[in-house]
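Regression test case RT-17, inverse folding.

Input:
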């Protein structure tokens, strides 16, 4: 499985205990209880790991993988990014999108025209912010009434920013 076929769900923050358990920080919202395996990025490739036990503690989780039975083995995956196949995601309604899907999309404003490309999406509390890279970096909220449409086929996001928004 390639990285392009997957989405990042988090990373291994540190080891936990002496028997190979690790602390994982999840960056995306999904059903953690249904996880049976995931992929870790190792030297540019994705390596599958099967979950032996998992305990969720809110902002972090403790995972014991089947093939990792010592502190030394757990140290080898510390800091590694963790992925799941995109095919495992829930199907979204029309006009909805996952944040990583729109990176690289063109962004246009109804009155200003082309603004740039989506560089990333950041979460700031309950607000999600679109980071647009054009002549200058633009931060725009991702919620109505600002987002007019998202066209995945054309890889285009249309915005309706308030007059003077870019002058701030």
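Golden output:
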């Amino acid at each position: 499985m390639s990285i392009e076929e997957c989405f990042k769900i988090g990373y291994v923050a540190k080891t936990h205990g002496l028997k190979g358990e690790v602390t994982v920080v999840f960056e995306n919202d999904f059903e953690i209880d249904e996880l049976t395996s995931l992929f870790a990025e190792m030297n540019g490739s994705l390596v599958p790991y099967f979950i032996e036990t998992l305990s969720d503690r809110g902002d972090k989780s403790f995972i014991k993988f089947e093939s990792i039975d010592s502190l030394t083995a757990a140290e080898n995956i510390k800091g590694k990014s963790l992925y799941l196949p995109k095919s495992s995601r829930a199907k979204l309604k029309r006009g909805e999108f996952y944040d990583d899907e729109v990176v690289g999309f063109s962004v246009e404003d109804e009155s200003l025209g082309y603004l740039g490309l989506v560089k990333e999406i950041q979460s700031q509390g309950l607000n999600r912010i679109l980071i647009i890279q054009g002549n200058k970096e633009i931060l725009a909220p991702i919620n109505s009434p600002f987002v007019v449409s998202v066209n995945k086929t054309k890889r285009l996001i249309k915005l309706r920013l308030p007059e003077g928004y870019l002058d701030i």
